[in-house]
Amino acid sequence: MFARTLKGVTMAERLKHTGALLNAQKRFSQVTQGAKYGPNFRQYLQLANGEVASYFHDIPLELKTEQRTVRMVVEVPRWSNGKFEISKKLDFNPIVQDVKKGKVRFVHNIFPFHGYIQNYGAIPQTWEDPTREAGLGSIKGDNDPLDCCEIGSMTLHMGDITEVKILGSLALIDDGELDWKVIAINVNDPLALKLNNLEDVEVHMPGLLSATREWFKKYKIPAGKPANEFAFGGQYKDAQYTVQIVRECHEAWKKLISGTVDGDNLPAIRRAGHGIKALSDEEDPMPIPSEVGSWHYV
C-alpha cells in the first residue's frame, strides 16, 4: 500500500519540506485504491513529489478573515448518493465510503431532491472537539472536521480542493453531537462576487437555504432514524459568526495534533513529511444497488 523514501532526513527537515510543497507549489493529486462503491475503496491525497498526505491535516486552512475565504475538500459531488467522507481512523485520512454492517452506505433520494443537493465536503485543519462542551448545554463536537456545503453552479469532483467564500452556517444536532454545516461558494463561481452573506443568497438563490435546512432535517428518515434537530431554533448564523466557528475549530485542531487533547477514539494523525508514497491499485467501480435510485416521500 505504501512505499518509503527520504531516508536519513530529520523530522524538522521533513516538516519544512512538506510545508514548502503545500504552501509554495499548492499542487495536489489523488491516488486511488480499491473499487469505488466497495468497502475497500480509498482515495489518498498526493503531493507534487508523490508523497501521500492527509486530507484532514496537511491541506492548509488558508483562512482569510477580510475576504472570509477558506479551503474546502470535496467529499461528495452534488446529485450523487455515495456517503463518502474523510476517514478519521485510517493513516493519512483518505476519502472512503462509509460502511455499516459490512455494506457501503448511500443517502436516500428525498423527493424532490436527488442525493446530496450541494457539493459536500470538509474544511481541512479544523476539528469539532468531542471532549469539550460547545457552548450549547452539554452538547459536544462530532469528532470530525467542519462540514462545508458549496452552493455554486458547478458540480465538483471527489477530492477537489477549492477556495470558497463563507456565507453562513447551520448548527445541526446529529445523534446528540454538534455538527456545523458551513454554507459557502466556490470563489471562481459566476455568482461568487454577488454573494457575500445569507441575504444575498436569498436574493440570487431564492429557496436554497430553506431547502438545505429541510434536506438536513429529513435525509435520515428513510433509513428509519428520527428527523435531525438544530441549535438556535434552526436559524442560520451569519458569515461573521461562522468565521469565528472556523477559527475555534482550527484552534481545536492545533490542540489535537499537538497531543494535548485527552480522549477516546481521537482521529488518526499521520501526516506528510515522512517520505511515504501510496501505491495506485484502482479497480473498476462496483455496481450501485438499484434501490439507491428510488424516491422517498417524507
TrEMBL record:
* Cofactor(s) needed by this chain: Mg(2+)
GO MF entries: inorganic diphosphate phosphatase activity; magnesium ion binding
Source taxon at top rank: Eukaryota
What Pfam families does this protein's entry cite? Pyrophosphatase (PF00719)
Q: What is its EC number?
A: 3.6.1.1
Q: Which GO terms describe its biological process?
A: phosphate-containing compound metabolic process
Q: Quote a single Gene Ontology cellular component term.
A: cytoplasm
The entry's keywords: Hydrolase, Magnesium, Metal-binding
Q: Which family does it belong to?
A: Belongs to the PPase family.
PANTHER family membership: INORGANIC PYROPHOSPHATASE
- The protein's name is inorganic diphosphatase
